[in-house]
Amino acid sequence: MTNEAAIGAVAVLEDDSRRGMYWFIRRARRPVTRDEAAAEVGISRKLAAFHLDKLVDAGLLRARYEAVGGVRRVGRAPKVYEPTDTEVRVSIPERRYEVLAEILMGAVLSEREDETAREAAMRVARRRGEELGGAERERVKPGRLGAERALTLMQGVLAEHGFEPSREAPTCVRLRNCPFHPLATTAPDLVCGLNHAFCSGILTGLGTDSVHAVLAPRDGECCVEVRGTT
């Protein structure tokens, strides 16, 4: 779930009745009917249906029609609700620790005899970036990329991963947020190196040699800047 979607989900849960029904359904460990959910929070079935559908729209619940207790009745089976597997995490500014965890786990699992753990992590970070850049190139099919077009595509990929890219000039994108902070303050050389390898990999995947990721640390921002030539 994106940060924007997560914020929306949290907003949906602000209502006491929705929040009460949501936690009741999560604890139930089985599909729950509208009548059961309504009774749990003390509201009408019609109002419960409205709130439950809001929870479905937010991606927190899923709904289907199912005979309760395996008993078939005349007419349509009642609508039942159960929680989705969606995790809701909101962080402002956005953090993406799972990306860093995937990179480090990949390094542990694929470390070669001729490389250090750090070198393995850099290799995996670059490969992960290449996969993302390649997927974006396949989606857009941009042909030959000049610097400005490459930077525009790069901005889109980086924005999806929480870097808050900002176009400082036609040929310069500054990353305003480090998705791995505060880990970057604990091991800045490692995390900044992984960021640089990750961004360089994206550019490789995009298929451009007119744009480069460089280390240009600033307080309170990501250590990487993406620069191109006209």
Which key terms come to mind for this protein?
single chain, about 230 residues, alpha+beta, Arc Repressor Mutant, subunit A, Muramoyl-pentapeptide Carboxypeptidase, domain 2, 2 domains, four-stranded antiparallel β-sheet, three-stranded antiparallel β-sheet, 9 helices, 7 strands, elongated, ArsR-like_HTH, Transcriptional regulator, WH_DNA-bd_sf, WH-like_DNA-bd_sf
Outline the structure in words.
This is Transcriptional regulator. It holds the Pfam family HTH_20. It comes from Nocardia gamkensis. The structure is a single chain. The protein is of the alpha+beta class. The protein folds into 2 domains: 4-83, Arc Repressor Mutant, subunit A (Orthogonal Bundle), CATH 1.10.10.10; 97-228, Muramoyl-pentapeptide Carboxypeptidase, domain 2. It contains 9 helices and 7 strands. The strands form 2 sheets. It has a 4-stranded antiparallel β-sheet, with helices on one face. The chain has a 3-stranded antiparallel β-sheet with strand order 1-3-2. Strand 4 (165-169) and strand 5 (172-175) form a beta hairpin. It is elongated and about 65 Å long. The chain starts with a helix and ends with a strand.
CATH class descriptor name of the largest domain: Alpha Beta
Q: Sheet bearing the most strands, described?
A: 4 strands, antiparallel
Strand tally is 7
Whole-number radius of gyration?
23 Å
Run of helices and strands: HHEHHEEHHHEEHHEE
CATH topology of the largest domain: Muramoyl-pentapeptide Carboxypeptidase, domain 2
Number of domain modules: 2
Work out the strand percent.
5-15%
The helix content, as a percent range, equals 40-55%
Shape: elongated
Report the oligomer.
single chain
Quick check: average pLDDT? 88
Can you tell me the residue ranges where pLDDT is under 50 for at least 5 consecutive residues?
none
CATH architecture of the largest domain: 2-Layer Sandwich
Q: Which class do the helix and strand fractions yield?
A: alpha+beta
Task: Give, in spatial order, the strands making up the sheet with the most strands.
Answer: 4-5-7-6
Please report the distance between the alpha carbons of the first and last residues.
Answer: 36 Å
